[in-house]
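Take the subject:
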Amino acid sequence: MNRKKILILPFLFSLLLSFFPVVSFANDQSLVYIIPIKNTVEKGLSEFIDRGIKTAEEKKADVIIFDMDTPGGAVDAAAAIGKTISETKIKTVTYINQDAISAGSYIALNTNMIYMDEGGRFGAAGIIDGQGNTAGEKAQSYWLSAMRGAAEKGGKDPRYAMAMADKSIAIPELGDDENEFLTLTAAESLHVEYSNGTVSNLDELLGELGMENAKVERMDESFADKVARFVTNPLIIPILLSIGSLGLIFELFSPGFGVPGFVGISSLLLFFYGHLVSGLAGYETIILFAVGILLVLLEFFIVGGIAGTLGIVAIIGSIFLAGGNAYHIAISICIAIAVSIIATILLVKVFGRKMKFFKKIVLRDSTSTEEGYVSNKTRNDLVGKTGITMTALRPSGTVVIGDERIDVVSEGNFIGKDVKVKIVKAEGSRIVVREFTDIDLHKEEN
């Protein structure tokens, strides 16, 4: 009997547990978050990476892998990206899946670990201006110290990072001569301990990190991200602003509102949209731009030039605020203005075009005599007639011609009262007389 009770106890215990909610303890699977760094480095990419890192932190990722293949780009964007990466507490790894050139090399140096593809290239980080020349001393000094600092922070020999950014620093043991920026292969990077290993793909990299069983999530660029990155490219900004200004200029020479105006406004809106998505501009910049446009239009109806001047200042100010980099925006605006001036001169001088827009708000019709308009009745019929001064002319006064009193002026001299005068000129309401002399009397008698 006791034995049967003992056998029943486990059954009763299991039945009792079935009435309680089931509590399961899930396996704490590691999470790897992959953020791509592709194509040119610009402000749009900076915002994309910042958003990606925040998402990885919210999801409590264990590792962030930056899948990199970039020819470089803007220094300020690279500096912002490097700062964002260095501030996160999540382990960061760069996978150089082909190229980490220029700004890309700086970004890679700010991560905790670097792995390279077998054909990867790492370096050539000199600053080059828009004409392909090495940048000025101040910019070069800043970038050199940034590269050195990033290497030292990662426990790497800073000589190689500095040789990537300065042609004058040679690394003979790697075959790097003066007048060349250092570029490391995968094998060389591993040899100088700039790389933690060489892998063929992401799966092999996950194995090297001990994350082969981890959950992998990838942050892909949306269409808006791609547009933002394209629009914020320093080479695209002056093109957009030039197209925008050209479209508006051509619209002023066209009747009504057509394709040029649509293209011009679309280009400017695309500029603001890209900078808004990339986080460089806020809605206040768009509001400022709209206010500027309204003030310029208001200038056509209010004289003085104040509204137009304020409008132009507001438009240029909104573009500066949206652009972020004042130097690049200043150059872009100057290019757009130069293109607009040249286009206007060509349209007016070469093609003989006239601004159709101003015909609606500027009075161009004249009320000439040839058109049948007269402001006063002209008394040409009085010329040659004679009369007697009713008042002295000093030089104006009144003359009686027949039964008509007429206000007249002398040719400048004084003429007394009751003196015979002759009408010599009639200009509208101005009747000019001359005193009747003996010579005139003699001619009249003959």
Q: What stands out?
A: Residues 408 and 430 are 7 Å apart (CA to CA). The chain has 16 helices and 13 strands.
